[in-house]
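Data card: per-record layout.
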Amino acid sequence: MKQHLIALYENLRLASRPHHWSVLWRDRQETRPSTFSDDEHLAAAISWLCRAQDVVAGGVSAGYFFKRGWMPPYPETTGYIIPTLLAVDQTDRAIALGEWEIEVQLPSGGVRGGIGLNDYPIVFNTGQVILGWTALYRATAEERFLTAAVRAADWLLDIQDPDGKWTRHTYLDAPRAYHTRVAWPLLEVHAATGEKSYRAAAERFLQWLEIQRLPAGGFAHMALEPGQVPITHTIAYTLRGLLECGLALGPPSQNELIDLVSSDVRQLVTAQQAQLQAPPAKLPAALDENWHGRARHSCLPGNAQLAILLLKLHALAPAQTADFAHAAQTLIEQVKAGQFLTNENTSLFGGVPASAPIGGAYVPYALPNWGAKFLADALLLKRTLPA
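The structure for this 387-residue chain is written out next.
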């Protein structure tokens, strides 16, 4: 009975807000390319992220959810929003987020899981906040940020399985290929401290991941839940983390991992060539083991993440990856087409829906903070392309 009442309330809230109506109507129309500049989209995304910070007492709101309004802070994504704010000279805001993450860090050193301030730690979330703390340490040289990162890294080492994966303090106690984004932060702590145990732990995870390699590329355990088809959000998490691990490890691992990630991305681009075009084309949200689409909706944060990955690979080998740059730009255009730049409601303006259409299966009717974050990152990286 309680769940039915909650569902009734949420659906009434979705339909009762006038500023929602235009969004629902927009999704019934054919998607058109944005007429706004990259700079306008970037400014709007950063403005929305700042608003998401201001609506909560600490951290960054998980986002604006049509059925619930502004959500409580999300420690995980607050952590990796920090480098984005630093990149656009919002240093005071970034420092405030890093301080808040220290305040709410669990006594064990782990980072709280889920939205809000829960009492349980989660491995992945811990890695993402380490990325924020290490970015702040590099920017400010303040030891408190490195100390927090070291405490978190030590907790990750304490609970790592002997074969390198993590299964304790993970969702459904299952391993994840996208824990490459946990190995990467450990390598950042190694770089800051020189402590070899962090590098060794990252390398153990990569050895476990090697065994998970699939025949057509990609890895087992890339999905959010066991048995699901992975979505572009977690595929990009996995491959971006692997690339960053390679860059941090240096030769010979560096070249091996860059080649591996490039191979997977090449297969994805080839298989999805028809969908890697300007709107109304859209990349499917879920891709199977052969890189074929398995969804009718698109995951806009995943599109932005893949654009970042494509641009990073292009920068490493420009002559061989012109198609990567093109694919990245079309993915950015798809995300820009979904971002709200004509709706004057302050909860919506600058936000990026999780799904296109907004009622798609991935976090439906929501503007999660990671959508705006990854679009901002992609637009900043796009600036490095030749004019």
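Known properties of this structure: The chain has 14 helices and five strands. The longest helix spans residues 253-271.

See the next section for split statistics.
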